[in-house]
Design goal:
Elements: E1 16-21, H1 26-33, E2 36-43, E3 46-53, E4 57-58, E5 66-70, E6 73-74, E7 76-78, E8 81-83, E9 91-99, E10 102-110, E11 117-125, E12 129-136, E13 148-154, E14 157-164, E15 171-176, E16 184-193, E17 201-207
Antiparallel strand pairs: 1-3, 2-3, 4-17, 5-6, 5-11, 7-8, 8-9, 9-10, 10-17, 11-16, 12-15, 12-17, 13-14, 13-16
Amino acid sequence: FDRAFGPAGAFNAPRLWLVTRAARDEDLRASIRALGSANEEQVGRYALTSIAPRVQGRLSTLLDKLTPSYTGQPLVQAGQRWTSSAVSYVEVAPRPCRIGGAMRPMLYAHPATGGELRLAFWDVDLGSALLLFGGIEDSAVLWGGSDVHVALHVDGAPTAELVIQNLPQTSLRTVDTSRWAEGTHRVELVLTTRDDTQRFTCVDALIL
């Protein structure tokens, strides 16, 4: 269970069991039921709820569909790591990231000042929503550090933006993608920052 995701933390477990107060926690139970297929049993004043979350995929695992670029120039791939020939510290790679004290596998992506680091995933099957999340690695949260902006594009159209603040926390945004539920689509995360000093950024998205 990933507490940084709030109710969405259930997505890190195949099935989650919760004990709640049947009447007083009804709003919480309704939120949990909305996350997936839930079964409930009531025992006196308490309710036992089990949930099997609906998760279709995760962008950080779709490396075979990933083609990253910086300011329009493709990055150079070496195994599961991509780098820029123009800016040495622009890099994309899957790796464990520590954000807000929690370790989780994500996609490390270091942007640069004045340019766009574009992570393009091709032929992605979308569902009803994307849970987009990211953060600055704890070791790189510095006084006065710049935020990182992550623009979400679907099939070339700007769709939403996630602002990753210079704080030891996970930033989250849920984006409705139900209009793209049919067929496959190009999903792009475009990272920019005002000042790239130690912007060790990690991003990912759950396909719901």
